[in-house]
Amino acid sequence: MNPQETIVTIFVLSDSAGETASKLAQATMAQYPSVEFNLFRRTFIHTKEHLIQALTDAKKHDAIILHTLINDELVSLTNHFCEEADLYHFDVLTPPVTEVEKRTGVAPSREPGALHHLNKNYFKRIKAMEFAVKYDDGKDPRGFLEADVVLLGVSRTSKTPLSLFLANKNLKVANLPLVPQAHIPKQLWEIEPSKIVGLTNDPDVLNSIRKERMRSYGLNPDTAYSDIEKIRTELEFANDLYQKLGCIVINVASLSIEETASMILNALNLEDHSYYTSETEE
User: Fold this and answer.
1) Per-residue pLDDT averaged across 177-195, rounded?
2) Which of 62, 135, 156, 159 makes the best surface tag, with the fewest CB within 10 Å?
3) What is the pTM of this model?
4) Residue 150 is inside which H or E element, if any?
């Protein structure tokens, strides 16, 4: 059989939303662009009956099983079933949880879905999302003074998606679209340059993105919006402003939203607070 004709099936099993194991599955699949995958998620598994049904379905597909079950009994059942059925299985959660218990002497809570508690951390994230929407596209420059991060960039440099992505990590983000000769809000000069990130792009890449944007609207792709010389002028204006501000500059031409967000967190020495569950923060 031609390897490229093989369909690989992955089952994600979880007692919660299954996001952790799903990300691992997606990262694995991304390494094989020529391979066809089927990805099945069986989530909120809390009973043996539910688990056995999911495992039986996985066996029919000779699936790879990735699981994030925390209940000892369900973990043992999964491991036993997979060994009997000769199914590849990977327990994402148990090894690090066991290691922490061994190092600290503290027993884990074994509570399914503990990552997604509606705690202070969760509501902080909701507020950050609301902040990103309120101060998107420079709607109110006063938001710059309250923001953890201020994103600047010409049109189609991923300001809004980045704002929402970072907001999901509990960061208050405002953004401002840059247009040559447009008024620059005074608040931009009143904040620390270390909180500002200037987004730029390669002219040819931006040209393609804007043309595709126009096509998606059913419009002529060759307009002033996508004119390469106009784009170069916009980028020069933006880069000149970044130099005056003394802010961090990131070229997003070949970066995904996730990669750009990670670079921003690193560059600004910010931590990803999206998974913290401590209630001690004031």
Assistant:
1) 94
2) 62
3) 0.77
4) strand 149-153
